[in-house]
Amino acid sequence: MARTNEGCGAWVTELLEVEPNDTVLEVGFGPGVIVQRLSRLVSEGHVAGIDPSREMVEQARARNAAVIKDGSVDLRRASVDRLPFDNNSFDKVLAINSMQVWPDVARGLREIRRVMKPSAKLALGFTIYSGQPNNGLTELLTAAGFTDASVVIRDQWFCALAANV
Fold first, then answer.
1. Which has the closest alpha carbon to 162: 106, 101, 113, 89?
2. pLDDT tens for residues 63-88?
3. What is the spatial distance between Cα 33 and Cα 30, in angstroms, rounded to a whole number?
4. Can you give the residue range of the structural domain that contains 156?
5. What's the CATH code of the domain at 143?
6. Which pLDDT belongs to residue 4?
7. Cα atoms found within 13 Å of the Cα of residue 25, Cβ hemisphere only
8. Apex 100 CA angle, 165 and 46, nearest 5
9. At 108, is the secondary structure helix, strand, or coil?
């Protein structure tokens, strides 16, 4: 999983234009490879993540132990449909190859929107192995209240981008 999602996650991170002072949330962080990348980019901000798998939380915490210890990263076991964060907390939110396994996609998107700051950006990245079709994503994001929804395709990856305006 780490190798399969790493390239896509790096590309999605570039599309999000993550800045040093951003607060960033990764939904479904798996083994924590993208969290590790984000923690290097967000030198003055904060990185948080949720994953429903106890095993993935343990792996990601081990991989990111130093930045968790210094307080710049917070990884929790939780589900996207009940995010353990306050309203208007994040500048950027991303999910790589996880939306297709969320219990309720519409509810998950609404919950993500709740924790995003006004004008924050969301990126949902997928590899060709995800099983997620790229058609219908912009409509799904618009129905959840996001704006400027678009899909970008690159090689074996695609990404749905949207803003919380």
1. 113
2. 999 999 999 999 999 999 999 999 99
3. 8
4. 2-164
5. 3.40.50.150
6. 66
7. 27
8. 50
9. helix
Distance CA 123, CA 156 (A): 16
pLDDT at 165: 76
Q: Look up residue 74 and give its two tokens.
A: 């917070």
| Stretch 51-64: mean pLDDT | 98
Report, in this order, helix, strand and coil percent for the chain, each rounded to 5.
Answer: 40, 30, 30
- H-assigned helices in 17-130: 33-41, 54-63, 65-69, 105-115
Over 60: is that where the pLDDT of 2 sits?
no
| Residue 132 predicted with pLDDT over 70 | yes
Provide CB contacts within 8 A for 161, sequence distance 6+. 15, 16, 121, 122, 123, 148, 149, 150, 151, 152
Q: Grade residue 3 by pLDDT with cuts at 50, 70 and 90.
A: low
Number of folded domains in the chain? Answer: 1
Residues of the chain with pLDDT > 90, as a percent, come to: 88
Tokens of 5: 């999602």
DSSP letter for 9, please: H
